[in-house]
Amino acid sequence: MVVRFRKFQKTSEISYDRRLVMARVFVYGDERWEDPGEEFSNEDVRRHLTTYFPELAQASIEEKTLDDGTVEVHLVKRAGTKGLTPGDVVGRLAGLEPVEYEAVALFRRLQSGESPVDLYPEIETARRELDEAINESRRTIDRCRRLQSCPSRRTPGGF
Q: CATH for 3-76?
């Protein structure tokens, strides 16, 4: 008997064929999913579910065979480090390449005596580029402000 399943959908509908294969059921917490097909490994299913449950990125996989021959595949999240350390952040920031904005080059051209009237289209383009950079910086700062504080064993500098 083959159990046919719809790809990665939670469902209780099962249809049977004449060939016999062991069916898998994937379990995470209170959620259960039928086997998407034998062409998908347990690891493939775990990776797919990570899209919806990011905490499964480092999950372990445990199998348990039931009396009816069904294999329950349990996805068990593991405790791990979350996020970056301050040293990681500093290292990544230090590795960034400087950004050359068109506005800087235009400023130099204006200092050398070029007419702002002649450069108007380029000035407008540069202004939009800077506005977008400013807005992206603000969005990043806002996201950082919403982060939960993380305890540290060391006293921050300046205290």
A: 3.10.20
